[in-house]
Write a structure and sequence with these properties.
28 strands; 4 domains; six-stranded mixed β-sheet; single chain; alpha/beta; binds magnesium ion; Molybdopterin biosynthesis moeA protein, domain 3; binds adenosine monophosphate
Length: 411
């Protein structure tokens, strides 16, 4: 049995990111939200596009006003009004000024803006009551970005700030990585869909939905292949189909040591190389990871059937895998932080233990609360609102209330 760290190293090294030339699609700006940029973006526009004013005030020549004060104001003749969006006509000469507004283009000749609060207007004259600094309140053309340079690099996720930048740069079509395709199947004779009527002993296949939701949230495209019976032939067909058509395959169930747990032997019969078959963690000990030596063969994750275990295994291993696969350059690794626990957390110390609950930031300190209700790993109900897992390393049996605990942030 592998330790969590050993399993993590093996698994993360199996993942090849999507190809930045082949695995791409062109989408328009809003559809690019949340996607990973596949090619760097360059703009032909300078930012700012023109020298412009950062204030409502008066465009002046610095030399004219450098001695100005309340007692001895500089008096300038107003030659033009320059609102935002207007092309100035004047060329400011010594002794002249233009009324100017935030974002408006600086007129020729002027080099400084005096804020309105330090002036007094009388008819067509303005009194400058305080000397500005040279070039004050002028945003110079290309001060933020010079046309032709790289505006955004490949490998970043496009969130609202990047969408704003791209809109401003008039980049309306973007090359993004396609989403990793993740096939999902559930194994078990006891399973029915959420729409079917339950017969005694049956269980609804919640894992299919949990995993599809997780895959979407990790940036993947879920392919829901449904429920497969614990019958070797049926399973073999479904698994062969899945590995040929997806980047990753997630199955749940059938990876323990029970009489109906066929997944590992089927993977081997299909030529799979088993890289991981169990991990010293709780929950989530049964975990089968396999690869296939065929072109574009998927990485296979046989997750435990227990709904809590399936989610914990996903968060610990699969979420980073999908993110790494998606082409993102940084930030795909699991995010651990230290938090204070609000209650005692215990483990038998034998396997690395993951306790689900809620992470909150309270007065600048991260606090972790264990999910309420029945703490059985068969209890799916108390997973609601889980956003983090507290982690107790092997050998650690107790973390007392108020003490620091390592927490894996999953949302
Ligand atoms: P298994 O790993 O196949 O032995 O399943 C372990 C437990 O998880 C059993 O109680 C199953 O009924 C339950 N289980 C397996 N698959 C699913 C599923 N897709 N959705 C919900 N529960 C499941
Ligand atoms: Mg089963």
């Amino acid at each position: 049995m592998l330790s969590v760290n050993e399993a993590e190293n093996i698994i993360f090294n199996l993942v090849k990111p999507l190809n930045h030339q082949k695995d791409i699609e062109t989408v328009d700006l809003l559809a690019a939200t949340g996607r990973i940029l596949a090619s760097p973006v360059t703009s032909q526009l300078d930012f700012p596009h023109w020298d412009n004013s950062a204030m409502d005030g008066y465009a002046v020549i610095y030399q004219d006003v450098q001695q100005a004060s309340e007692e001895k104001p500089a008096v300038l003749i107003l030659v033009e009004d320059i609102p935002a969006g207007y092309q100035p006509q004047s060329n400011i000469q010594s002794g002249q000024s233009a009324r100017i507004f935030t974002g408006a283009v600086m007129p020729k000749g002027a080099d400084t803006v005096v804020m309105q609060e330090n002036t007094r207007k009388e008819g067509d004259r303005v009194f400058i009551l305080k000397a500005p600094n040279p070039q004050e309140f002028v945003r110079h053309r290309a001060a933020y970005y010079q046309a032709g340079a790289e505006l955004l690099p490949a490998g970043i996720q496009l969130n609202a700030p990047e969408i704003a930048i791209l809109a401003a740069a008039q980049c309306t079509h973007l090359n993004v990585y396609r989403r990793p395709r993740v096939a999902i199947l559930s194994t078990g004779n006891e399973l029915v869909t959420p729409e079917q009527t339950l017969q005694p002993g049956q269980i609804v296949d919640s894992n299919q939905y949990a995993l599809a939701a997780l895959v979407k949230q990790s940036g993947g495209e879920p392919l829901m292949l449904g429920i497969i019976k614990d019958e070797p032939e049926a399973l073999k067909g479904a698994i062969a189909d899945a590995i040929a058509n997806a980047d990753l395959v997630l199955s749940s169930g059938g990876v323990s040591v029970g009489d109906y747990d066929y997944v590992e032997q089927i993977l081997e019969s299909l030529g799979g190389e088993i890289k991981v078959s169990s991990v010293a963690m709780k929950p989530g000990k049964p975990l089968t990871v396999a690869t296939f030596n065929i072109p574009n063969g998927a990485i296979y994750f046989g997750l435990p059937g227990n709904p809590v275990s399936a989610l914990v295994s996903y968060w610990r291993f699969v979420q980073p895998v999908i993110k790494k696969c998606s082409g993102i350059a940084e930030g795909w690794k699991p995010k651990f932080i230290k938090a204070q626990t609000r209650e005692n957390i215990s483990s038998n110390g034998k396997r690395e233990t993951y306790i689900w609950g809620k992470l909150d930031l309270v007065d600048g300190i991260y606090e972790f609360s264990v999910a309420g209700g029945n703490k059985s790993s068969g209890n799916l109900i108390n997973l609601a609102q889980t956003n983090a897992l507290a982690v107790l390393e092997v050998g650690k049996k107790l973390v007392n209330v108020g003490e620091e605990v390592e927490v894996l942030r999953v949302y």
